[in-house]
Automatic annotation (TrEMBL), chain A:
Pfam families reported in the protein's UniProt record: Fer2, Fer2_2
SUPFAM superfamilies referenced in this protein's UniProt entry, alphabetically: 2Fe-2S ferredoxin-like (SSF54292), CO dehydrogenase ISP C-domain like (SSF47741)
Protein name: Carbon-monoxide dehydrogenase small subunit
Domain 2Fe-2S ferredoxin-type residue range list: 2-78
Keywords: 2Fe-2S, Iron, Iron-sulfur, Metal-binding, Oxidoreductase
Entry-linked InterPro entries: 2Fe-2S-bd (IPR002888), 2Fe-2S-bd_dom_sf (IPR036884), 2Fe-2S_ferredoxin-like_sf (IPR036010), 2Fe-2S_ferredoxin-type (IPR001041), 2Fe2S_fd_BS (IPR006058), Beta-grasp_dom_sf (IPR012675), Diverse_Oxidoreductases (IPR051452)
UniProt keyword Mitochondrion, yes or no: no
Alphabetized GO MF terms: 2 iron, 2 sulfur cluster binding; metal ion binding; oxidoreductase activity
UniProtKB/TrEMBL annotation, chain B:
Record flagged with keyword Oxidoreductase: yes
Domain of life, per lineage: Bacteria
GO terms, molecular function: iron ion binding; oxidoreductase activity
SMART domains: Ald_Xan_dh_C (SM01008)
Gene3D superfamilies per record: Aldehyde oxidase/xanthine dehydrogenase, a/b hammerhead, Aldehyde oxidase/xanthine dehydrogenase, molybdopterin binding domain
Cited Pfam families: Ald_Xan_dh_C, MoCoBD_1, MoCoBD_2
Domain Aldehyde oxidase/xanthine dehydrogenase a/b hammerhead: 21-139
Swiss-Prot/TrEMBL keywords: Molybdenum, Oxidoreductase
Organism (species): Jhaorihella thermophila
InterPro entries: Ald_Oxase/Xan_DH_a/b, Ald_Oxase/Xan_DH_a/b_sf, Ald_Oxase/xanthine_DH-like, AldOxase/xan_DH_MoCoBD1, AldOxase/xan_DH_MoCoBD2, AldOxase/xan_DH_Mopterin-bd_sf
Protein name in the entry: Carbon-monoxide dehydrogenase large subunit
Length: 161, 787
């Protein structure tokens, strides 16, 4: 077992992990941050997406030890300081961008990473960016729309409800 | 002005707040004190004789608590099948045993052989690798027709063959249908495959068994669409636990699409092992495990013949289908290719004679059962593809051929045993033509052609039977369950309401939409109503969510219970207002005496029910809580018309979806936003089936598509924005809300539109291609184009 230390959602945390412990396992099982979900074993579905040092990462595809010393952000740290939904989360609710909610944390984290790099993405850019995040419920329609809305674009013009 | 409240409004979903902040409570998020973990050692061969399972080394591994094998389950029940189909000779289907852990033989890749329970998941996995297996591999049967040949290896040695049943429907019509086809002016024949799919909810299955020795009570936490059904099946048929000693909890569930209806071995194992070990036992599926253990869907091979007279009226339909059951009968598997498929073969059309033959076949593959639509997509795909082919052969417009044969008078009794109560198929077609801008298609095709692309337009209609189902009818058809739904409406002393429903929400948004109904009925704010579901300990008996039944059946139960509440509350109000009960009216949360200004508020009546100082105790009991069970009188029949436009790249065979439009008739609608979302998701899955998804076994029964690296799920850049409309509404005539259900429509209605569009595109380029099996991959398109 090896000691690992990192900052998660602004708080310093540490724990003892095996070499094979995944970052997603560390977040879920050691820290109890169960908002990060695991939907596949092959880094395809993106439900486990978190930010490591500001970059979107599939946490089931990274060892906890690789994140030693890093700053990690998860869905639990995304709301505004007063607890209200941030702009992306609010847009997902406003535009019904989630149904069962399982892929949602990964979608929100992937969207946040996109908007940081590209504040006004086109529909095609959003769809391309989300190609590493699977959703089985929404057919992606309202997710794409929510991300466009979160970036301040008028979505009524591009897609009906 | 859209409504902002009650039925027809689109309030934002209340469940979103927890899902968007990581505060959902999915089964894998639950960890119990002292919890142990199980890892299943699964068969890596499709068919084999188990000579020996040597666990001696594995048992000595660190952290191992116990290793179970099939021998530990001798004397324990097997997984039951909930539907018995009678074949066309009047004989019951062949029904093999389905042990929790394999006994004697393994019958598909993924069949569980041993289960290691250890202190940590890693220790369980490590120890499983130390189990020494002696399995003699046997020849496997994968292809359904080969499985029925004389001398084919038998999946179950104690059955007479691999044929589960040979079903004919309607058997009495067989000769008349043969005659009609022989005498027809034109017969169009199509052979097709409805590709095998995997439901793939994003949350893999999880089960946690727990046992309390002090009370002798077992609890199962599981990813289920119907916790009461699991309690009944597992308690009564597998483990012998009476229902009052067994609690099943299905908390937040990350999608189901049918695959989480069924009772699975892992649920029974965890509950069993927790009692044996007196410790909670948890199992979390990996995605690869999900691929080789979740019940698969579809997998039909069909020949359909459509007979037409000289005026292009449909005169008869005859189909022959082979339907894959897999290695064992999953919970509702036998019903899918029969009663959920044969009864839908009339579609939206007047066809006086129909005969459906289905041979259900055992193979060395994962069990196959209901997946979103379940039987109805298979029926729709055959019918809507053969009609398109007929239109092409006859040189008539595919829309006009459909219109000519539409059912226009309701109620309409089909020749396949069901009676449609309402519908307006011309109206949905008219709406489709408008929203899909069919008139603009030639210009769009010309524009595509300028860019060297072939553009195609595909149209289809669909009908589905949902709101499953009248218990007395399904009982006659072989169901071993009733299919009612229940709800308890508990009004608290200060007027707030808790509804405990047997319906289960795993994405459908019941926590938001169900309160809209009660808010409308009583005239109070939706925030005063809370929905509780998913726990047998606090909800009445329920049959759960599948077959687009939640609002039509569960919602109706809630309405009936609320009606009882209102009737009782009116008696209390009449007493408080010193008026006759017959004169009491309820509006906007106020009970008033007709024709006077005397009134009493909802909250005051509720308080009086629980503080009955001034109360008609001689006539009614205190309290305000009612339960209703609702058993529907008929199925509901949503219908619609869909259009897809594709571009085909003639250089590569790649198909892109350029647009997709859906005009649906769901009857009355509670929450339009949620309905739109259900249709979007269904279309996404239908496009997935049509273009991408395929569950593939090789000839030895190895599952080649066991991860997202190999099974092509639709991604955001595979689909466009969809145009959906549900303004055509013919309300259901036999349930109190006039609702029909919307959950499966998109998945049922969309695959034929996509394939029809691809064929149209290829024909426009001069390619004489009249069918391509799904998924319509670039390789298949290319091969079809180049012979």
């Amino acid at each position: 077992m090896t000691q690992v230390t990192m900052t998660v959602n602004g708080k310093a945390v540490s724990g003892e992990v095996e070499g094979r412990t995944l970052l997603s396992t560390f977040l879920r099982e050691h820290l109890g941050l169960t908002g990060t979900h695991v939907g596949c074993d092959t880094a395809q579905c993106g439900a486990c997406t978190v930010h490591v040092d500001g970059k979107a990462v599939k946490s089931c595809n990274m060892l906890a030890l690789e994140a030693d010393g890093a700053s990690v952000d998860t869905i639990e740290g995304q709301a505004n300081p007063d607890g209200s939904l941030n702009a992306i989360q609010a847009a997902f609710q406003e535009h019904h961008g989630l149904q069962c909610g399982f892929c949602t944390p990964g979608m929100v984290m992937a969207a946040a990473a996109l908007l940081k790099e590209n504040p006004k993405p086109t529909e095609a850019e959003i769809r391309h960016h989300l190609s590493g995040n699977l959703c089985r419920c929404t057919g992606y329609h309202n997710i794409v729309k929510a991300i466009m809305a979160a970036s301040g674009q008028d979505v009524a013009a591009v897609a009906a409800e | 002005m859209p409504k902002d409240h009650g039925i027809g409004a689109s309030p934002k979903r209340r469940e979103d707040l927890r899902f968007l902040t990581g505060a959902g409570n999915y089964t894998d998020d639950i960890n119990l004190n002292g919890q142990a973990y199980v890892h299943f050692l699964r068969s890596d061969v499709a068919h084999g004789k188990i000579n020996k399972v040597d666990t001696s080394d594995a048992e000595k591994m660190p952290g191992v608590l116990r290793i179970f094998t099939g021998a530990d389950f001798e004397g324990v029940g097997g997984l039951p099948c909930g539907w018995q189909v009678t074949d066309r000779f009047g004989q019951p289907m062949q029904e093999p045993a389905h042990p929790v852990l394999a006994q004697g033989k393994v019958r598909h890749v993924g069949d569980p052989i041993a289960a290691v329970v250890a202190e940590t998941p890693e220790q369980a996995r490590d120890a499983a690798e130390a189990i020494v297996l002696d399995i003699e591999e046997l020849p496997a049967v994968v292809d359904m027709k080969a499985a029925l040949e004389d001398g084919a290896p038998k999946v179950h040695d104690d059955l007479t063959s691999n044929l589960c049943y040979d079903w004919g429907f309607v058997e009495e019509n067989r000769e008349a249908v043969d005659e009609a086809i022989k005498n027809a002016a034109h017969v169009t024949t199509l052979e097709l495959v409805n590709n095998r799919l995997v439901a793939n909810p994003m949350e893999p299955r999880v089960a946690i068994g727990d046992y309390n020795p002090a009370t002798d009570e077992s609890t199962l936490y599981t990813t289920s669409q119907n916790p009461h059904v699991i309690r009944l099946l597992m308690g009564a048929f597998v483990l012998g636990i009476p229902e009052h000693k067994l609690r099943v909890v299905a908390p937040d569930v990350g999608g189901g699409f049918g695959s989480k209806i069924f009772h699975y071995a892992e649920e029974a194992f965890c509950t069993f092992a927790a009692k044996q070990l007196k410790r909670p036992v948890k199992w979390t599926a990996t995605r690869s495990e999900a691929f080789m253990t979740d019940a698969h869907g579809r997998d039909h091979v069909t020949k359909i013949e459509l007979a037409l007279d000289a005026d292009h009226n449909f005169t008869a339909i005859r189909t022959e289908t082979h339907a894959n059951m897999g290695a064992y009968l999953s919970t509702f598997a036998p019903s899918v290719p029969t009663w959920l498929h044969g009864t839908l073969m009339a579609g939206n059309y007047r066809t006086p004679l129909i005969y459906v033959n289905v041979k259900a076949v055992f193979t060395n593959t994962v069990p196959v059962d209901a997946y979103r639509g379940a039987g109805r997509p298979e029926a729709t795909f055959q019918l809507e593809r053969v009609i398109d082919k007929a239109a092409r052969e006859l040189g008539v417009d595919p829309i006009e051929l459909r219109r000519k044969n539409f059912i226009t008078e309701f109620p309409y009794a089909t020749p396949v045993a069901v009676e449609y109560d309402t519908g307006n198929y011309h109206a949905t077609m008219d709406k489709l033509i408008e929203i899909a801008d069919i008139a603009g298609f030639p210009a769009r095709r010309a524009e595509s052609e300028k860019r060297g692309k072939l553009r195609g337009l595909g149209i289809n209609c669909y009908i589905e039977a949902c709101g499953i189902a009248p218990s007395n009818l399904v009982g006659q058809l072989g169901a071993r369950a009733g299919l009612y739904e229940s709800a308890t409406v508990r009004v608290n002393a200060t007027g707030g309401i808790v509804v405990m429903t047997g319906s289960h929400s795993h994405g459908q948004g019941h926590e938001t939409s169900f309160p809209q109904v009660i808010a409308e009925m009583i005239g109070i704010d939706e925030s005063m109503v809370e929905i509780v579901h998913g726990d047998t300990a606090n909800t009445p008996m329920g049959m759960g969510t599948y077959g687009s039944r939640s609002i039509a059946v569960g919602g109706s139960a809630m309405v009936r219970a609320t009606e009882k509440i209102i009737n009782k509350a009116k008696k209390i109000a009449a007493h408080l207002l010193e008026a006759s009960e017959a004169d009491i009216e309820l509006k906007d949360g106020q009970f008033s005496v007709a024709g006077t200004d005397k009134s009493v508020a909802w909250g005051d009546v509720c308080l009086a029910a629980y503080v009955p100082h001034n109360y008609p105790l001689e006539d009614i009991e205190p309290g305000l809580e009612e339960t209703a069970f609702y058993d529907p009188a008929n199925f509901t029949y949503p219908s619609g018309a869909y259009a897809c436009e594709v571009e085909v790249d003639p250089d590569t065979g790649k198909v892109t979806i350029e647009s997709f439009a859906a005009a649906d008739d769901f009857g009355n609608i509670i929450n339009p936003m949620i309905v739109d979302g259900q249709v979007h998701g269904g279309i996404g899955q239908g496009i997935g089936q049509a273009l991408l998804e395929n569950c593939v076994y090789d000839e030895n029964g190895q599952l080649l598509s066991a991860s997202y690296m190999d099974y092509a799920m639709p991604r955001a850049d595979d689909v466009p924005f969809y145009k959906v409309d549900h303004s055509c509404q013919t309300p259901c005539t036999h349930n109190p809300l006039g609702v029909k259900g919307c959950g499966e429509a998109g998945a049922i209605g969309s695959p034929p539109a996509v394939v029809n569009a691809v064929i149209d595109a290829l024909q426009s380029g001069g390619y004489k291609v009249d069918h391509i099996d799904m998924p319509v991959s670039p390789a298949r398109v290319w091969a079809a184009m180049h012979g």
